[in-house]
Write a structure and sequence with these properties.
With 134 residues, this protein is an all-alpha fold. The protein contains eight helices and no strands. The protein has one domain. The longest helix has 21 residues.
């Protein structure tokens, strides 16, 4: 599968503040992320929701072989579900047990494989020049 590119302003994770920083409410958002990451059935729902609702961010990241797909899906699931910033999700990850991490990664692997199966025919590759046209 070839890499698909979008200008970052089209990424839904960017548009929804996933890369923002906000100290107010941080502790609560970290707890929310840990709650979601440790609930495999709910995590599956939210990761799948990301792949369905955040098309540009998903295509940009899941077609990039050098991206950690598990981390992308976990961070975006926390963002779409609870407005959690990516650094807060990373902090929450540190509070999980190894068993919880393993289970969350298995969910991400499942969602990734399902997405790849549905999008295996994605063969377009956009250049920097084409991005401005989209």
């Amino acid at each position: 599968m070839k890499q698909i590119f979008y200008h970052y302003t089209r990424w839904e994770d960017f548009q929804n503040g996933m890369y923002d920083e906000d100290k107010d409410g941080r502790r609560e958002r970290v707890k929310l992320a840990a709650q979601l990451l440790s609930d495999p059935p709910r995590l599956y729902e939210e990761m799948t929701r990301v792949t369905q609702e955040w098309k540009c961010a998903t295509e940009q990241n899941l077609t990039n072989a050098s991206i950690n797909h598990q981390a992308f899906l976990g961070q975006t699931a926390c963002a779409i579900w609870g407005g959690v910033h990516e650094d807060e999700t990373r902090e929450a990850w540190g509070t999980l047990t190894n068993q919880q991490r393993y289970a969350a990664n298995k969910v991400a692997d499942r969602v990734f494989e399902e997405w790849v199966q549905k999008h295996a025919d994605v063969s377009q590759q956009m250049t920097v020049f084409e991005m401005e046209e989209v």
